[in-house]
Design brief:
The protein is about 40% helix and about 20% strand. It has 9 helices and 12 strands. With about 325 residues, the protein is of the alpha/beta class. The strands form 3 sheets. A 6-stranded parallel β-sheet has the order 3-2-1-4-5-6, with helices on both faces.
Amino acid sequence: MGNKITIIGSGSVGSTIAYTLAVTGVASEIVLIDVNTQKSLGEALDIRQATPFCGPVSVYAGTYDDADGSDLVILTSGVARKPGQTRLDLAQTNVNITKSVIPEITKHAPDAIYIVVANPVDILTYQFIKYSGIPANHIVGSGTLLDTSRLCARLAEYYRINQQDVHAYVFGEHGDSSFVPWSMANISNIPIDEYASCLEHKDPMMPVLVHSEVEDYIRKSGGKVIARKGATFYAVSAAVTSLAKAILCGADSALCVSSMLGGEYGISDVCLSMITIVGHSGVKGRLPAPLTNEELALMRHSADCLKGVISQLEF
């Protein structure tokens, strides 16, 4: 039996996620839903004409009625971030859009697992959990999965090593209050700050790893891409496809994604990212890995930042 995935929103992110899902064979049926029906029709047709080079998959534009029986729903609908605009600037506008989407999609896909991708992702994940009636463990935000990918890619550049040998995470908000718990970062189990000194053949051109510079790079990467090409969509699509695969294949995976915390690190009633076990039933639990006192303070600061914004919104 195949996997049916419905994607709400067929803009740059939604359509690229659909394309990536199709070419990687994660889904057997993909439905694109958008208020701009011509856009979703065009995107579906373009992707569908690539399918002879992929595994068997049906890709089409539809309405909420076509979401019936979806195994997974991916929410990308919302106003895109503009150059110079923070994710939180988008909050009320995209909360209002999500408010209109929730009753329509949940009526047709009450048993699906939901992935929230639209920004501000932590706040929209919180909204979906609080107001959709869908079980909280069936709702996961892409959170800092993309930030974590950016971090690992950057560290791999520093040390000229396979990206998959880098193990590091970005915790907290998918935004300005995010942080890297450097105490956990390593390359093949060698602590990240000790890796260079362990190399047998040292490269004199290898730059010194400055934590603050790397974190600044991660936070500003999205804005730089938007300023240069208008939108970010390749990396986030790869991240969301990886998350979708983890859910649909049924093999539990430890991923840095956003979910509703229930006391981990002394934080509750807010969605933000930490290492989370994700599997066929959605969020199966969180892994409160040891943090230093400084890192714990940063985690709580990120939660407070999000709660401050939530308190000002009308859901």
